[in-house]
Amino acid sequence: MPSVRAERPGAAALLGWLTDPEAPRLCLVTGAPGLLDWLAAHGPRAAGRRRTARALVPLTGRTALGTAWAVADHLGVVAGSAGDLVRALATSETGRAARTVLLLPDLHAAAEPEAVAALVADLARLGRVRLVVEASPGTPGYDLLAEGRATVVDGDQPASAGPPAPSGTPDLSDPAAVCAADPVAVTTGYVGDPVDDHGGLRTAWLRAGQALCAARGPADRALGLLAVLGDGADPRLRPALRDLAASAPWRVRWTRVAGDVAPPWPGPVTALAAQGGTLLAADLGGTVRLLAAVDARPLGQLDHPVTGRVRALAPAPDGTVLLLDERGRLHTVRGRQPRPPYLQRLTEAVSTTLTRHPGTALAAIGGSVVVGDRLGSVHAFGLTGLHQAALHSGRVTAVAAVESATPFVCSGGTDGAVRRWTPGKDPDPEPLTERRSPVVSLAATETPHGPVLAAAWADGTVELHRIEQHARLTFRPGPPVRAVAVTEDGALVVGGDEAVLRLERAG
Known about the structure:
Elements: H1 4-7, H2 11-18, E1 26-30, H3 35-42, E2 46-47, E3 50-51, E4 53-56, H4 64-75, H5 82-91, E5 100-104, H6 113-126, E6 130-134, H7 140-146, E7 151-154, H8 175-180, H9 183-191, H10 201-214, H11 218-227, H12 237-244, E8 250-257, E9 271-275, E10 278-282, E11 288-292, E12 298-301, E13 310-315, E14 321-325, E15 330-333, H13 341-356, E16 361-365, E17 368-372, E18 377-382, E19 385-390, E20 396-402, E21 408-413, E22 417-421, E23 433-434, E24 439-447, E25 450-457, E26 462-466, E27 471-475, E28 481-486, E29 492-496, E30 499-505
Parallel strand pairs: 1-6, 1-7, 4-5, 5-6
Antiparallel strand pairs: 2-3, 8-30, 9-10, 10-11, 11-12, 13-14, 14-15, 16-17, 17-18, 18-19, 20-21, 21-22, 22-23, 24-25, 25-26, 26-27, 28-29, 29-30
Helix pairs in contact: 4-6, 4-10, 5-6, 6-7, 9-10, 10-11, 11-12
């Protein structure tokens, strides 16, 4: 690294703060223009086995909401608001935040400097992340942050001449302009215009904005907007967004979002499963609604004995539906056909086991019930006996089983890894896929294209894998993803707190 004392005023003091474990979590930098950009460009030094990441989030033109979205992206969580970000970090299972230093230059140039400063103060009080903020003394944002416990680094350089001219706000009612514009400017425009919903574009943008701001280009933004557009939106928007999303790798077959009435939104989704042409969608209260997979028409609800939240749904090939409740216990809902006695004995044995050792994840195929546990192991209960494998570091959060020529299991955990395992054999040595965020849901099935796996993580990312072709597609709906399902023809269904939607591969 270059000589910090000679080249960057204030750099030595800032690096001293970075290496002092007893220092306050917040550092205010004044009179050192460009110091945070320099620090980000030179990157961190290794510290033991783990490396402390430095995440640069320029505040120029940003609202508190836009800042929260950008910070959430760096920390591997999903946040619909500044308050959501604070709550997510306070309860998150990931240690990613504790290994990140957020570099936030130009507080004076933010669209909402005091609101952004309030968010920074809340994050500093959590103690989960370290923050460096470039602020000008005498401004309200600086004064608010200086009231708390903070280290101040003064580079003794002339203060900034003031905020730069803001970028122009696009026509917020024009979907083409919105998708092509700087997403920071779009967010600021919508935040500052709470009266006009711009035909439904504003609501859709604020619902999916974290993903939209991180999207690669206009087509992906159009796809994201289309995925969360309500049925009360201007009818001209949907075809316009479809045209704009034509080059995206996905097509939105249908979407149901909060407030929809025709067909109605089924409510928040906590667990999903596909059973033939029917989707099973569990809500926060434990009700399992039945939807037509082709168009989300309501088909009634599952008559089951579970009270409280359903953690996982596992339809069996004979029509039986297995449910894992929030205490980790197994329940059975019989199908229309009589269940073979040997399968009934199997599920009764698994149910008895889970009363003593609660499960954390559940799947089922022809002659097996697969369960994950809090210690990272996966257990496949079958007609020929029990097979077990320690697959994860930390709790198993999801399992999926595939009834193919060689049946196999996929599992995901708080370690972010998705692993493949054939019971009775050694697990694959390398993860099928992984991210720096806990897995929240898995689904898999055999399709005409071979086995297909869907995986979702707590950072809001979903992947659809054609396993034999080693091909995958990625999608981010914006709001947190709670559950995924795969239909028998290989379509992806995504469920969350505010929307459930079906995506299909383009072409």
